[in-house]
Amino acid sequence: MSSRRILLLGESKTGKTHLAGQIYGRIRAGQSAFGFRSQPASLKLLEEVLDSLTNGKSAGHTPSGQYGEIEFDLTDPGGDKLELVWPDYAGEQISDMVARRSIMPDWAARIESADRFMLLVRSSDAVARKSALFSEPSRERDLGSRRRTDRMPVQMRMVELLQMLERARTVAALDLPELDVLLTCADEMETINDPKEALARHMPMLASFIGTRWTGPRVRYWAISALGRQLRDDLANEEFAETGPVEQGWIIGQDGQKLKDLTLPFAITSSIP
Ligand SMILES: Nc1nc2c(ncn2[C@@H]2O[C@H](COP(=O)(O)OP(=O)(O)O)[C@@H](O)[C@H]2O)c(=O)[nH]1
Ligand SMILES: [Mg+2]
């Protein structure tokens, strides 16, 4: 039996918690080719997210420090072991890492042990900050580097992140692993037929950087919407509640087809239709 580890990387508000909840729900309902080898340690969080969704509401913000890391210990369709490592802290650790340009030891270990990276980016952030392709010069003298990177467009931070990951792998004498790029909350975007092209359109700099480091089957592009729509945490969406979370959400792969199996990106390349 072989074993693979996927490291999910996404800044705060890219939809990690809701995607984790929906993936948990899909697998639990048997609507995925993957199964759980053991119960996730973060079961309470996942159940909370699913409970909110079942009531037609989004889950509140992940309480700071309460959950740490979501780890899914799965079996894949071939009977092999698959671990999803899903750091989901409220503390914006990824953004911090980029701002400080330093990788903490626990992150270095995650980066070195990954067989695949999964990068989550949300395009609406990029759209909102479209005018700021380059950071505006700071007028305040004492702004720390943390604040300045905050104001960088998301695609610049993600390029920086990928370069840091590359460096960390090189130091450990490792190549870059394969990559999945997920455009999350894609219901907020225009109709997508080609996720790669959509990334290039919304985040040209990030798309071209990725293109220089990952080519051919080493990189896959997806547009994913865990919920299929925006939900509120204070007002139930009756239609969503009636249909149930398992029926909501979709993913579009490179063939442009909209599918319901949100766990598709976890499959090895050769088993994707
Ligand atoms: N439109 C839309 N909003 C979503 C989706 N998934 C999550 N959200 C919203 O995006 C916000 C951040 O989601 P969350 O899962 O907490 O992101 P995290 O900080 O990366 O864990 C919340 O307000 C969610 O309701 C989605 O698929 N579509
Ligand atoms: Mg979260």
Short summary of the structure?
This protein has 273 residues and is an alpha/beta fold. The chain has helices spanning 16-28, 43-54, 93-100, 105-113, 123-128, 145-150, 154-171, 195-202, 204-213, 238-243, and strands spanning 3-10, 35-36, 69-75, 81-87, 116-122, 178-184, 219-225, 250-252, 258-259.
Commentary on this structure:
- With 273 residues, the chain is an alpha/beta fold.
- It has one domain (3-178, 225-247): Rossmann fold (3-Layer(aba) Sandwich), CATH 3.40.50.
- 35% of the residues lie in helices and 18% in strands.
- The chain contains 10 helices and 9 strands.
- It has helices spanning 16-28, 43-54, 93-100, 105-113, 123-128, 145-150, 154-171, 195-202, 204-213, 238-243; strands at 3-10, 35-36, 69-75, 81-87, 116-122, 178-184, 219-225, 250-252, 258-259.
- It has a 9-stranded mixed sheet with strand order 2-3-4-1-5-6-7-8-9, sandwiched between helices.
- α1 packs across α2, α3 (93-100) packs across α7 and α7 runs parallel beside α9 (204-213).
- It is globular and about 50 Å long.
- Residues 129-135 have low confidence and may be disordered.
- It binds guanosine-5'-diphosphate and magnesium ion.
- Guanosine-5'-diphosphate is lined by residues 10, 12-18, 58, 62, 88, 185, 187-188, 225-227, 229-231.
Structural class comes to alpha/beta
Low-confidence stretches: 129-135
Describe the global form: globular
CATH topology: Rossmann fold
Secondary structure: number of strands: 9
> In percent, how helical is the residue content?
25-40%
Total domain modules = 1
Q: Averaged pLDDT, please?
A: 88
End-to-end separation in angstroms reads 23 Å
Strand order of the largest sheet: 2-3-4-1-5-6-7-8-9
The top-level CATH class is Alpha Beta
Task: Provide the gyration radius in Å.
Answer: 18 Å
Biggest sheet details: 9 strands, mixed
SSE string, helices as H and strands as E: EHEHEEHHEHHHEHHEHEE
* Bound small-molecule species: guanosine-5'-diphosphate, magnesium ion
**Strand fraction band?**
15-25%
Q: Helix tally?
A: 10
